[in-house]
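Supplementary Methods. Inverse-folding protocol.

Structures were first reduced to a discrete structure-token string of length 452. This string, shown here, constituted the complete conditioning input.
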């Protein structure tokens, strides 16, 4: 059956103490909202609806930047969760399928859990709610079950009786029903409660009053973690990193010190990759099988091919494409450049807007001078070329296959295949001049001291 996901992202998040909408704060380099949208994509949702409110324009932009097909609706007044979901009614009017409600500040709902919810729906439950056994249930709504184990109602903590407060099975807020049932029941929700809000949780009691069976699916409490403060944000980051490290190791990656490696939300790492201590991944990184990422390296927006070696202390910036078996060594920065198979950039170099040919060797201190203050220009270095140490390649410039540059050269013209480019001032030695100059300076200093 088709599935639509409605993501509630209208809240202000005052506890964040921030001008940025809560759902745009990041975990693993992605806004919380994007994590929720990824969960929706994991179950191949046919439609994703994001309900915006506070900071709506920024939230809408983040949603459509990530998924241009996301549908945006606005909750002008924050009158409760049922009222928020109601804003999606018109854009789903022609939708025939189940609707799952997720939250933009709850980033860790797994695909397997969502599939369990959908299975329960297809097994005949009119409403399915995700619950968890809370270690400290005080603030959460309670799931009240009947004698047969079905879900009878949800009671908000502030409205619960002492007996209901003793229940430890709590509400995550995630709920599923078919589209017609969900919006028909929402129309019947009122705000006669202590908060004077329209609670989405009231759908369960309304469904039961109409004889519809309801079910509760459970998951670990950590999966339902909501982010409401900077402290929560740090906890969410730690939770994500722990999960990502375990997944990487289970998939065949070696992490000698896993607690020091930081992944992004979309990092892809192949089998038999070794990632040493204190490596940080930004967004959009792929590391293929057999590569070795050495300590203190930073990678973002790049692709590392099989058996390549990166670092230590290397920085790969967006657009870096590192070929198989290539080496990018310590204090080397690569940006928007193709480094060919077997090429070596072993130390102290900047390579930007460039193509480095197969098996080329780039000497220490090499710089591709790619920016003239207005435009970027390209450097092309051929296969098996040897770039001498401390060479400045002033782009646009091409160094041919098997060509060389002399150390210390400032290269401004192309060098053909097999050529040696020398571009430096001729050395002149003045016999004895250094000693005479130093003696003169020392004498001047001594005379100055006598005057004092």
């Amino acid at each position: 059956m088709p599935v639509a996901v409605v993501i509630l992202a209208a809240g202000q998040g005052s506890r964040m103490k921030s001008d940025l909408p809560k759902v745009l704060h990041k975990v693993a380099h992605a806004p919380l909202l994007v994590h929720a949208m990824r969960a929706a994509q994991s179950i191949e949702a046919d439609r994703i609806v994001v309900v915006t409110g506070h900071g709506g324009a920024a939230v809408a932009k983040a949603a459509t930047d990530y998924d241009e097909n996301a549908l945006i609706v606005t909750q002008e007044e924050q009158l409760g969760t049922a009222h928020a979901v109601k804003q999606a009614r018109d854009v789903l009017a022609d939708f025939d399928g189940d609707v799952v409600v997720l939250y933009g500040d709850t980033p860790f709902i797994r695909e397997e859990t969502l599939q369990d919810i959908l299975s329960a729906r297809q097994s005949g439950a009119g409403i399915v709610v995700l619950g968890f056994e809370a270690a400290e249930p005080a603030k959460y709504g309670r799931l009240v079950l009947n004698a047969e184990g079905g879900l009878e109602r949800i009671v908000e903590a502030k409205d619960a009786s002492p007996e209901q407060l003793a229940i430890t099975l709590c509400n995550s807020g995630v709920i599923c029903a078919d589209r017609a049932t969900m919006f028909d029941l929402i129309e019947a929700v009122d705000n006669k409660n202590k908060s004077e809000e329209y609670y989405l949780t009231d759908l369960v009691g309304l469904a039961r009053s109409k004889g519809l069976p309801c079910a509760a699916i459970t998951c670990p409490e950590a999966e339902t973690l909501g982010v409401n403060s900077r402290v929560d944000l740090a906890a969410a980051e730690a939770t994500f990193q722990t999960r990502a490290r375990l997944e990487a190791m289970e998939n065949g990656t070696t992490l000698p010190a896993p607690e020091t490696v930081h992944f992004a939300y979309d990092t892809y790492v192949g089998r038999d990759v070794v990632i040493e201590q204190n490596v940080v991944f930004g967004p959009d990184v792929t590391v293929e099988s057999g590569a070795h990422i050495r300590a203190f390296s930073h990678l973002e927006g790049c692709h590392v091919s099989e058996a390549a070696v990166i670092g230590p202390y290397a920085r790969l910036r967006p657009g870096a494409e590192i070929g198989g078996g290539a080496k990018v060594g310590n204090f080397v920065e690569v940006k928007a450049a193709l480094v060919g198979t077997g090429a070596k950039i072993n130390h102290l170099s900047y390579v930007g807007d460039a193509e480095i040919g197969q098996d080329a060797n780039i000497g220490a201190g090499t710089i591709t001078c790619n920016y003239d203050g207005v435009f970027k220009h390209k450097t092309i270095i051929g296969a098996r070329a040897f770039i001498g140490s401390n060479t400045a390649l002033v782009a646009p410039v091409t160094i041919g296959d098997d060509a060389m540059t002399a150390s210390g050269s400032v290269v401004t013209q192309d060098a053909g295949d097999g050529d040696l480019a020398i571009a430096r001032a001729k050395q002149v030695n003045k016999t004895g001049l250094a000693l005479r100059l130093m003696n003169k300076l020392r004498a001047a200093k001594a005379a100055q001291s006598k005057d004092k």
